[in-house]
Amino acid sequence: MKSLDALPIRETGFRTKYFEVHARDWEAAFVVGTAYTVQDVTSQRKVAIERITPFDHSESMFCLRTLKLLRHFHHENIIAILDILKPQDINDFNEVYLVQELMETDLHRVIRTQELSDDHCQYFIYQTLRALKALHSADVLHRDLKPSHLLLNANCDLKLCDFGLARSARPPPNVANDGNTFMTEYVATRWYRAPEVMLTFKEYTRAIDMWSVGCVLAEMLSGKPLFPGRDYHHQLSIILDILDTPSIDDFYAISSQRSCEYIRALPFRKKRPFSALFPKANPDAIDLMEKCLTFSPRRRIEVTEALAHPYLSPYHDHPADEPTAEQIDPSFFYFDNGDPLGKEELKVLIYKEVTRPDNPNTPFALQSALVGGS
Q1: How far is residue 243's CA from residue 85's CA, in Å, rounded to a whole number?
Q2: How far is CA 206 from CA 6, 124, 133, 134, 272, in A?
Q3: Are residues 157 and 249 in the same domain?
Q4: Domain tally for the chain?
Q5: Do the domain assignments include residue 263?
Q6: Where is the Protein kinase domain (predicted)?
Q7: 367: pLDDT confidence band, cut at 50, 70 and 90?
Q8: What is the DSSP letter of 328?
Q9: pTM above 0.90?
Q10: Is 149 in the same domain as 99?
Q11: Could you tell me if 45 and 120 lie in one domain?
C-alpha cells in the first residue's frame, strides 16, 4: 500500500465537480503504476485514480497504448477508463491521471493468501477468456497476461488490465510478424511467456495469450507458478521437462539459429502427465490447461474453443453472452511501427489523446484542474 505522500499533489488536495479528495484519507487500493482510491461526493461511488508519469520512451509507449486501447474496448471483463483529468496546457503536462473502476485486489494476491475452490478457478478463467475473446476478435494481443493483471472485487468480478505491451495481431504490410522485427519488445513476465516468444518463432499469434491462460489456470490449481524460471535457459528447461522435447515440425518453426542449437543440445525428455502434477484437480481443468499449454502455437486451443470447453460449461450458456469487439486496423498502432518516435513527439501524442473532446464511457466529467485547498 502506498500513501498519498508519494503524490506531488499532497499539499494541494484534489477537487473537481464530482470528486473531493482529502489528502490524509487517500490511500492506494491497488497499484498499477500508482493508483489511489477516491469517492464520488454525489453518488458515494468509489473509484481509482491512477497516476502515470509517462515521459521516458518506454513509459510513453505504455501510456499511449493504454489510453488508446481502453478507449476502444467497452467490456465487462476489461478495466474501463471512466475519465481522464485534462491538463491546462502541454507546457504543464507531466503526468496523466486516469479515473478507473475500483477493484479491491488482483488474482496474484488472492492466490498467495487463500486456496481457491474449483468453482473460483472456473469463474476466473471464464472471465479471463471472455476478455480475451474481445481482444482477439479486435486483432489485439495482450502479451502480458498474468495473475497480477487480473483485477478482482468482492463479488469475484474479474477485469483484465495493463495494456502497455499490447500490439496488433496483424502487422502493417511493411512490418514482418516475426521475432526479429514486429515483436522485439520485452513481452510478458518470463513465467507466463509462451515458448515461441523465447525461441523466436517465425510468427507470433493469439496463441501467446492462450499459453498465459494455461499458466494462470495451473497457478490457481496449485497455488504456485508452474514454470518459475530463474532465467531464459532455466525457463525453457522446466517447460520442456513437462511438455517433452519438441517435435521435428515444432523445431523447424524456430527461426533463431541460436535457439535451435540450444534445443538440439538438450537431453531428450518425455512428457510428464498433468494429472500427476495436479492429482486433486478436476479432470476437465487439467484437459483445458493441457490444451492451452501445447508447445506448438498452431495446435494450441483458441479462445472461442476454450470458452466452449466442458470445464466452463456452468458459465458458457451462449456465445452471444461473450461479445466480440470492433476490429482494430493495424494503423491503430502507428506509433509502434517505423522509426522510433522521440520523447517530445510521444508527449504530444499523449497530450492529444488525453485532451480529446470525447471522454470515455461515463457521465463523469473531470474538467477542472488541481486546485488549492481541501
Answers
A1: 48
A2: 38, 20, 10, 12, 26
A3: yes
A4: 2
A5: yes
A6: 21-312
A7: very low
A8: P
A9: no
A10: no
A11: no
According to DSSP, residue 365 is labeled: -
Phi, psi of 254 (to 5 degrees): -85, 125
Three-class SS of 248-306: HHHHHCECCHHHHHHHHHCCCCCCCCHHHHCCCCCHHHHHHHHHHCCCCCCCCCCHHHH
Distance, CA of 113 to CA of 106 (rounded, Å): 11
Residue 241 annotated to the active site: no
Instruction: Count CB neighbours of 245 within 10 A.
Output: 16
**Cell numbers at 166, concatenated:** 499490447
Residue from 199, 118, 104 nearest 154 by CA? 104
163 is a domain residue: yes
Question: How far is 39 from 21, CA to CA, in rounded Å?
Answer: 7
Closest among 44, 99, 53, 78 to 362, alpha carbons compared: 99
147 with 15, same domain: the answer is no
Q: Is 371 among the domain residues? A: no
86 pLDDT band, cuts 50/70/90, is confident
Tell how far CA 99 is from the center of its chain. 18
Average pLDDT over all residues of the chain: 80
Bridge pairing between strands 96-101 and 81-84: antiparallel
Q: Is 10 contained in some domain?
A: yes
Domain coverage including residue 32: 4-103+338-354
The active-site residue, picked from 83, 106, 144, 162, is 144
- Look at the alpha carbons of 362, 365, 370, 372 in this order and tell me if their dihedral is positive or negative: negative
Identify which of 137, 274, 291, 273 has the alpha carbon closest to the alpha carbon of residue 210: 291
Q: Identify residue 323 by its one-letter amino acid code.
A: P
- Asked whether residue 261 falls in the same domain as residue 315, the answer is yes
Residues 11, 142: one domain? no
